[in-house]
Amino acid sequence: MDLKGKVWEFGSNIDTDVIIPGRYLRTFNPDDLSAHVMEGERADFANKVQKGDIIVGQWNFGCGSSREQAPIAIKNAGVDAVIAKSFARIFYRNAINVGLPVITADIDVNEGHVLEIDLKKGYIHNLNTDKFFKIKSFKDFLLNILLDGGLVNNYLKSKNKNTNI
Question: What domains can be seen in the chain, in order of their start residue?
Fold first, then answer.
């Protein structure tokens, strides 16, 4: 799975209330959620983010409540991956479950840089500085979940394969 996109930088302790403020949780509509993504940190993020962009955070990204709407809002806004030095465990799992790649890494990058990511081979390439960063490659079962768009789609796909034998 290869990804390429422009970096949006965020700091440490980006919690789920910042990612999708609670006042917007009256809906589960992904379009409504993504219209307000990261509003608690940058009011204009949802209007400026483009398909394929990448969020780079620092420590403890996704802390706070266990709301799965946070990674849904990020993914539906067009963000292809989130990279951070560490993630809250429940956010990490929710992101994988909805098909949003989350990568634990400490990389040298500035906002606006363009990154290429190869999850299978395990590297991030900063195209602006030509630096490569080794990351833990994703196991095939995780790649399949991400490629299928999340855990539910992956399960339904495997279930359909088994019933078509």
Answer: 2-138 (3.20.19.10)
